[in-house]
What does this fold into?
Amino acid sequence: MTMTETEAPAVRRLSTAKALSEGIALEMERDPSVFVMGEDVGAYGGIFGSTGGLLEQFGPTRIIDTPISETGFIGAGIGAATEGLRPVVELMFVDFFGVCFDQIYNHMAKIHFESGGNVAVPMVLMMAVGGGYNDAAQHSQCLWASFAHMPGMKVVVPSNPYDAKGLMISAIRDDGPVIYMFHKGVMGLPWMAKNPRSIGPVPEEAYEVPIGKAAVVHPGTDVTVVTVSLSVQHCQDVAEKLDGEGISAEVIDLRSLVPLDREAVLTSVAKTGRLLVVDEDYKSFGLSGELAATIAEQDPSMLRAPFARVTYPDVPVPYARSLEQAALPGRERIEAAIRSLVRA
Amino acid sequence: MDGAQRVAFYRQMVRIRTYEETIRANYHADKTPAWDIGAGLVPGEMHLSAGQEPVAVGLCAHLRDDDAITGPHRPHHLALAKGVDMKRMTAEIYGRVDGLGRGRGGHMHLFDPSQHFSCSGIIAEGMPVAVGQALAFSRKGTDAVAVAVAGEGAANQGAFHEALNLASLWKLPVVFVIEDNDWAISVPRPSSTSISSNAPRAAAYGMPGERVEGNDVEAIHDACGRAVSRARAGDGPTLLEIHTVRLWGHFEGDAQAYRGEELAVAESHDPIPAYEAKLRADGLLDDASVAAAKADAQAEVDAAVAFALASPVPDPSTLSDYVFA
It folds into this structure.
């Protein structure tokens, strides 16, 4: 009987949440110094599913539910990391960083530098970001630029299951602190509307997705669309639609904000001559401005149309659906911006 | 306590005081005629620990190399008593490449992994880090302990309360030491804290709490011994508040007008002459041994300063080094 040997294996499809937690599980199996702590990471499995099944597999000594005490347990993660463990710490919502940011930017991010490289902080701080489900001003923000602005932390922002697993494995293996931001809308949760792209093929084995390397997720020639996280899915949808009309958009998923793969952006813009940045974070002083500056510093004449951006406006996230949907960088705004750019 | 240990305490306190006096003199030496905080061989803020030596010496006598300390912005006494290399520490304070942090940290950010020593300039924020070090020790199955040291002003910060709760909840080998020097920069303790002792706050977190009066190295040593033993035995954390004295300003250049008559009272409570008198009375010190203690300390400190001055300043081309591991 050789039939089974020649049979192609079924492509396994996972949600982003499942892929992410599988990445953690594989590293925990490989490396006993890895452990997880945060609010509701145990029996609940993470409010957005990031630690589903881990308590059952590894028990409460390695999957640790914490009190609502973010300064306390993020600081404890830092201390454990400086003593050689590899904590994966969850801050439930990025919006909560206001109660614990000192540990993050003054300690986690600076200890390696202040110690002249003598003390490493190999720690992952993961957190849910993003809106679109009417959770209002304090539970819907992205805020990745706030982290990316301050030196000493890598920042990764996956958009799909494959990258979620590979970036988590890379983040755990990194010898420095990594901020891992997963958008609730890409997790593939059964209780939230989702794009089919939030469930996708994921290899069973461990693999790394390199931190700081962008991916061209939709090749094109007319316009470069640079984005991250849930907006990648929207941009892919729009690019596929426009393909049928002869508008060829190249969509770049940065995947990491720190380090920022400026080269990937420059290479694409050199080809297309047009740049649109789509960002669910606030408009001003953020990713879109940074990428505009990147072009301006390199060669402003690369652009044959003015730089364009579709971002969250500089307004707190409103509750009412009509207002929030108008503010989000959705498919309609993206499509209109691309059409306008290629006409320019 | 045997005589040799008492003399060792005295010598260690003299060593720390000599260090602080020397740094103080050097700090001010090249800031004339117009005082400029950013000028000179030792620029920046400088928080010196004169008067608080008994806390560091009494505590660190119980600590091993593999025990950890997270210290505050006023860290020199703790670093020296813990065993941090004086030469590399001094080179760091002078901003030189042979410093503990290759000149990137400065005097509020001293890191010596061989002594598991660190400090932070943000009030109380080192306390959760000590909890995490204790968590790591306990997961690794060692009996090492982590000590978090902070001033009395820190006990009104959230990080203090979060750290105490976590350490007690997880029964971790942590000793929390509050150095009460009566002043949070210019704010006296009665204006900042609703109770006269922080020791009762320990009860809120299910751990023993003890306040030690008198700034006496032997009484401090006893109290720290109980707390460290308890942690090492796996019985959980302890909160100690040690009433000490800040002989000098919050930072160098602080004119301390706010202290009024209290300053003279504080200066009359210098713990080192008091301890010296006690040991002389007990026949453990005499003029010769006192002079030797001071001369030995000065020689070591002078060698550390010479080491620092001989070390190069960091090359600006290395500015971006060590941002990432």
